[in-house]
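HUMAN: Mind making up another protein with tokenized structure?

ASSISTANT:
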Amino acid sequence: MSQRSRLLALPFLLAAASAIVTSAQAEDLPILSEIQSRHELVHEQVAPAVVAVQARGAKSGSGLYGTGVVVSPDGLILTSSTVVPNANHTVQVFFPDGRVMDAKVLGIDDATEGCALKVVYEEGEKKQTLPYVEIADSSKVAVGELTYTAGNPFHTISRDGQVAWSVGTLSGVYRITSADDQSRYTGVALETDAAVNPGSDGGPLFDANGRLLGILSLCFCESRWLGTAVPVHLIKQGLATQLRNVPMLDPKTPVAPRVDLTRQQVLPSALVARAVPDALRTACRPASKAIVKLNVKRSDSARDNGDRRVSLVRRLRQRPDCPVTGVCIEAEGYIVTSAFNIEGDVQSVEAVLSDGTTMPATILGRHLGLDVAILKVTHPKGEMLPYIPLASDPSPQIGRFIAILGASEESPVPTHTAGIVSALGRLDGTAVQTDALTNYGNSGGPVIDLRGRLVGIASQVRTQSDWSQQNSGVGFFTLSDKIIASLPDLKASRDIKAPSRPFLGILADSTTEIRGVKLEQVLSGSAAAEAKLQPGDVILAVDGMDTHSWPQLVRVLKAHKPGDTIEIAYQRGNITARTKTTLTARKDVR
């Protein structure tokens, strides 16, 4: 197979390989090994130029730390003013190889929070040629492209000599004003679903070739809670004098292939590592035209969102007062979104189509168990709206690649987070789990597979659930075939309540050495309390069905409904006994 043919077939080979990767050896998976080698190669090329930055105030003596990146061989470094606020700070930079050098502030651009440093040498000290990275024209990048982040979170460089490295995608490009006062940046931001942590600010966002796209920022969007970077082309404009000798390259300019002289082979190119992100970007193009931005007006809008005096923890647990995402699934104007997006006292909903057309939307039906809702817009007579149909057979499999699109608040280009299917049959069988990052902004957005099919809707984002906070890596989506099955009722303006789930009222001990479920706590007023169960008891069976483990007990209880009377066999000390109780309904916090 030719190199070009292999790359064209790569996304589909990867999808097949993901099912067997756990049992295969690296030498049996040459394409995956090439991708891995490419990530290693980029890290090898650019990590030596990523530095820890420590700044100490001249008067207060207080210290700040973050990350920087060297952009010229004579020691010009870019970082953020959140790391080095002004020229009065004493600055040191720590290289991964252990070198520690002093640096001075050449200039700070308040508009972009860009800060230019230059290493300084003691009198008579020989100047060094330092490792550095190239700068890309960040105005020419596209959402969904491969990106890397590198940084010094938790002092990984200064303490351990290790550059924290993460791979992801460029998940959004939009105008932003930071949700808190750690950053004062207002302007276009590059969002990424690669890891960004405290101490990463001032560090680099790289493209697939290891060229600098932006400087990581403390700025974030309250509906998204993802890492962002200030585009380097804007920083170069703001620090024009300091960066005048640093060329800015077109990101599409190819990098000369590198050769491993030891093995006498050409090392993998960026095209290899970009294969999956690029395949998902291509697959998502039809769906991007069907994205609908929904402006939901409520009487109970979260009025203190955006108030910088309100704690981040509190605001994280609030629904942001911002647009939400839907997707048009039929040309007649039917829009599906998350039921969560239209909860509360909704006064009106305005739908903004991908071409900017705005029209009122009517809420039809909601399925609270699946967390989906159907809305309808009245399109001009004779016109058909851009749409993407729901896939009748989504065929979810663990390890398959998917992307979640969202309506961007300040840009016509949808946001795009990518990942894999990570678990099936979650939340009582209503949802599929994914590690593609989900948040308030893309809840209700389309989930697209490598074939470009609409296989689900991002769902189950909640203000109080732990998995909904700060893009935990545990997200959910409702499968398209389940939505199709409920469409007749939803279009007929029927609300479908979530089915009541049986509740026994126990917390299990973590002990696994015994056969059965040992109780750690019995909740007051619960069915278990009515049965006179006590902490330390071991549940052996329910209605004669063996409950040898907690998952098995859950499966047995799920076969019942609230109001059912069950018989529990349990052991207390050396005594085995039986008791009966009536299951109650679980009260979920939404």
